Amino acid sequence: MRPARATDGKAVLRFSGGLEIRVGNLLSAAALLVTAVLLATVSLGSGATDAGLLQLLQSIAGEPASADQAYALWTVRLPRIVMGFMAGWAVALAGAMLQSITRNPLADPGLLGLSQGSMTTIMLLLVLAPAAPKLAIAVAAFAGGLGVALALLWLVGGERASGLAILLMGIAVETVLSSVGSLLLLYTPPETSLALADWMAGSLFQANWSAIGTFAPLFFASLLGLFLLGRATSAHDLGAELAMSLGEPVRRSRPLLLIFAVLLSSSAVTAVGPLTFLGVLAPRLAGFLSPASGRARLFLSALTGGILVVAADTLARSMIGDLPLPIGLGLTLIGVSLFILALRLQALRRLQLH
């Protein structure tokens, strides 16, 4: 490893195998990791019960905590922090991958219909079999998202299709599936309809260690996928034709990226419900913090997504305690506000340059 300068003059670290990492991306990743730790500490102490990091450390050291404190820390807050971070990580990573495939910063699992495909199959399963086990729900979510992904590839003509064609077709499919979901909400029994509407709003209220144990292998697999597929996203950012001219096997890598994004988004939908607009918010905010490409862009986007979900849940619990406030509301209050601020600062920066 040795310090060097990239073609644009930015400081980088070059490794013997040819890997190159921008120093600015490393500093941004470190700042985001510190932010995640600090936010988790704040979140641990947020809620109606007076318990936080100190009580957690004392509990780990063997000092007994009160029943209320132990329940708040180990049953409510820690599972919500861990599950929220992993779900946000997954959706943001999926969004960053889809934006590379489509070459459109607005692409995310929701806009392309992948999340809606997962939600529709879950809703159908819950209507037909309300007592379906969690594994069946997860399989249904993946099947629905994968079905939409394969339909998109077929409808737009496979690897020769443009990113715009994929995006437009995804919007059309998402609209149709949203109509199906609306019909289910309207014509199912009231108690089923209310349960479906509550789940569709997104919530970490049911986060528990069993669900975290199920989700954790996918989270760690996403780290491997990020490293292996990061280079392919750099090529797809240039467009399918140029990517093929550079030797990127678009016929294989595009479906692989799409299926991996489906797996991430469907798992998050199963765990916490839909996280609307997060796949757009997180990569955009990460790009504002530190412009990056390839693996660095995926990693920074995923980190930002995890932080946004934990921040949204912390805000919800700070406002009204441990009630099941939809996570989507917190994401709107925090994420969209930061998104607007970032766009405004970018506009001011461009005006100053001109």
Q: Can you describe this structure in just a few lines?
A:
With 354 residues, the protein is mostly helical. It is built from 13 helices and 3 strands; from the N terminus they run βββααααααααααααα.
What does this structure look like?
- The protein is mainly α and 354 residues long.
- It has a single domain, classed as ABC transporter involved in vitamin B12 uptake, BtuC (Orthogonal Bundle), CATH 1.10.3470.10.
- The protein is 74% helix and 3% strand.
- It has helices at residues 23-44, 53-60, 67-102, 114-128, 134-156, 163-187, 190-200, 209-236, 240-245, 250-272, 278-289, 294-320, 327-353, and strands at residues 2-5, 11-14, 20-22.
- It has a 3-stranded antiparallel β-sheet with strand order 1-2-3.
- A hairpin with a 5-residue loop joins strand 1 and strand 2 (11-14).
- Helix 4 (114-128) crosses helix 5 (134-156) and helix 4 packs across helix 10.
- The longest helix has 36 residues, at 67-102.
- It is globular and about 60 Å long.
- It starts with a strand and ends with a helix.
- The model has no long low-confidence stretch (mean pLDDT 84).
- It is found in: Cell membrane.
What tags apply to this protein structure?
354 residues; mainly alpha; ABC transporter involved in vitamin B12 uptake, BtuC; three-stranded antiparallel beta sheet; 13 helices; 3% strand
List the helices and strands and how they pair.
Elements (H helix, E strand, L loop, with lengths): L1 E4 L5 E4 L5 E3 H22 L8 H8 L6 H36 L11 H15 L5 H23 L6 H25 L2 H11 L8 H28 L3 H6 L4 H23 L5 H12 L4 H27 L6 H27 L1
Helix pairs in contact: 1-12, 3-8, 3-10, 3-11, 3-12, 4-5, 4-6, 4-10, 5-6, 5-10, 6-7, 8-10, 8-12, 11-12, 11-13, 12-13
Subcellular location: Cell membrane
InterPro entries: ABC_BtuC-like, ABC_transptr_permease_BtuC
Organism: Metarhizobium album
